[in-house]
């Protein structure tokens, strides 16, 4: 029986590729044989360039076949100038990527201006200010766009064109704040976002809006989307203005959206009654309902907490819909905010286990607690072992990405593994442990086999990390610390975030850590701003004269991402000048 791996069907390879990044696909399978190359080159690629070094970026661009790419995500967070470097590889982007459907730009300093006709989904995320270039790009794609996500609402105010095919519009809260400032400086502008939406003349069926400033619009018209009643099927609205709405008021407008099937709402209410919402839902076509209701400050939590969830325990909520509801309270300054919310949609992904009540009070049946509260993905889990943990949980959290431990000493392994499955941890933060020994660290790391990022407050002499950990953060560097010893103990590090006390220290780290692909350094670069540049880095750091690299800087930090060797003729030019 022939069981050679390369004889698997194309469909099986496609399923494998669906779980891998673009870099991993190329690194693992490219150039093994002709058939695998053929399968890779016809696989529809979704290229995500987030959290990637210049070395891996160049590797992807070398093997990438433009016609196979259906989506891109660009981000300058870990590698600066991604778009600029990418255009050097593909100068005729519009005509090369003929099957591209979606592009997402995340805080990039530049964008791809001339886009393929096939592109129908466009996202600009994390932009505090949107340039004229972004607006012109959106206008160019107006006829073909079916999906648009922007963080700046004034983009729509700046566009005098219709979007005949647009059916998904997402406007973030950052954009609403900026839009409000924009209106204050432009008295002739309409301050009604409903008017802007109407002017798009789009058959919008998915709408997502976030409103955080009561000066943006007459609050009495906020929930009124009846002009979209013929097409709107999915509505997500976050309304965090300083106004409390009544149930009757919300119901009056929602009843006009006759085709609405999915409703997600975050809003401040004067009263929460599951029976009222049940009666409302039964009169509509809504089949998916998620909410986070913030109770009015006039609500007395201590008097009503036992009854707050009772109205959500009916057969309708628990048996017909399986819609579970939770309750918690947050203290900010002198105010206590009480929330009632849908589970699991509004469960937090960052948990302070020793401060927060977890799992929260809810209507979830006891036989479903493990699946809903403990088997879900947790981005960040924080433990403060200076505080006592009264009761150990019935189940362990099994999908935690980042574990942050705090206390005078490192807790026992038994205490930790009784709460969280350490096999899934990718990042471990020990920077808040005051007294820790090398033996304790190594013992803990033996239980975390998939760890790839380790965070310390200070450099710990004589600690040599395991080989499978290649990414580190050192938050503080003392003048008495031994840089030579650090470079020997961490010689194979690929990614480093570190506080430096001089530019000479940064130069030494980049030159000596030969496997280093990315380094973020914290330093007061503001005083060096007049002369600091890419050319300065090349002149003063011998390794960067030979390597391709990108640099992203601010007044107090710098990210350098290092790639492959430069071409010989380019190297000669740099040495000459």
TrEMBL record:
This is F-box domain-containing protein.
């Amino acid at each position: 029986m022939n069981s050679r791996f390369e004889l698997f069907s194309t469909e099986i390879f496609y399923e494998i590729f669906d779980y891998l990044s673009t870099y991993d696909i190329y690194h693992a399978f490219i150039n093994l044989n002709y058939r695998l190359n053929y399968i890779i080159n016809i696989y529809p690629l979704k290229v995500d360039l987030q959290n990637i070094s210049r070395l891996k970026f160049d590797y992807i661009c070398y093997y990438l076949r433009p016609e196979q790419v259906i989506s891109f995500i660009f981000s300058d967070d870990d590698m600066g100038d991604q778009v600029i470097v990418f255009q050097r590889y593909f100068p005729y982007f519009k005509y090369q990527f003929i099957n591209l459907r979606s592009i997402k730009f995340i805080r990039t300093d530049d964008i791809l201006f001339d886009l393929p006709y096939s592109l129908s989904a466009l996202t600009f995320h994390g932009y505090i200010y949107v340039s004229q270039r972004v607006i012109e790009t959106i206008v160019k794609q107006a006829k073909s766009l079916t999906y648009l996500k922007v963080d700046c609402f004034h983009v729509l105010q700046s566009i005098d064109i219709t979007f005949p095919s647009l059916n998904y519009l997402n406007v973030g809260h950052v954009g609403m704040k900026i839009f409000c400032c924009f209106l204050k400086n432009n008295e002739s502008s309409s301050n009604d976002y409903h008017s802007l939406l109407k002017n798009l003349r789009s058959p919008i069926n998915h709408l997502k809006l976030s409103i955080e400033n009561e000066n943006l619009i007459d609050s009495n018209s906020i929930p009124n989307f009846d002009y979209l009643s013929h097409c709107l099927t999915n509505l997500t609205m976050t309304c965090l203005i300083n106004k409390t709405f009544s149930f009757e008021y919300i119901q009056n407008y929602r009843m006009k959206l006759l085709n609405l099937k999915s409703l997600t709402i975050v809003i401040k209410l004067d009263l929460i009654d599951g029976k009222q919402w049940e009666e409302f839902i039964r009169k509509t076509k809504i089949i998916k309902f998620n909410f986070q209701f913030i109770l009015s400050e006039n609500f007395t939590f201590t008097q009503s907490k036992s009854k707050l969830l009772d109205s959500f325990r009916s057969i309708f909520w628990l048996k017909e819909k399986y819609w579970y509801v939770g309750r918690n309270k947050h203290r900010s300054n002198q105010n206590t905010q009480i929330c009632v919310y849908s589970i699991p949609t509004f469960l937090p992904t960052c948990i302070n286990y020793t401060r927060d009540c977890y799992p929260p009070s809810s209507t979830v049946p006891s036989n479903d607690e493990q699946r809903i509260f403990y088997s879900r993905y947790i981005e960040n889990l924080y433990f403060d072992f200076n505080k006592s943990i009264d009761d150990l949980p019935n189940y362990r959290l099994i999908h935690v990405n980042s574990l942050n431990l705090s206390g005078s000493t490192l807790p026992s392994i038994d205490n930790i593994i009784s709460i969280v499955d350490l096999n899934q941890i990718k990042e471990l933060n020990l920077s808040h442990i005051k007294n820790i020994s090398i033996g304790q660290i190594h013992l803990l790391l033996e239980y975390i086999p998939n760890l790839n990022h380790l965070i310390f407050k200070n450099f710990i002499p004589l600690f040599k990390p395991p080989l499978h950990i290649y990414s580190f953060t050192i938050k503080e560097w003392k003048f008495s610390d031994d840089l030579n010893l650090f470079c020997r103990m961490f010689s194979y590090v690929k990614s480093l975030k570190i506080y430096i006390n001089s530019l000479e220290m940064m130069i030494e780290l980049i030159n000596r850590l030969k496997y280093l692909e990315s380094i973020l350094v914290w330093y007061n670069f503001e005083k060096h701003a007049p002369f600091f540049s890419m050319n300065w880095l090349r002149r003063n750091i011998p390794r960067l004269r030979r390597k391709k690299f990108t640099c992203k800087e601010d007044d107090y930090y710098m990210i350098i991402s290092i790639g492959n060797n430069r071409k010989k003729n380019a190297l000669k030019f740099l040495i000459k000048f």
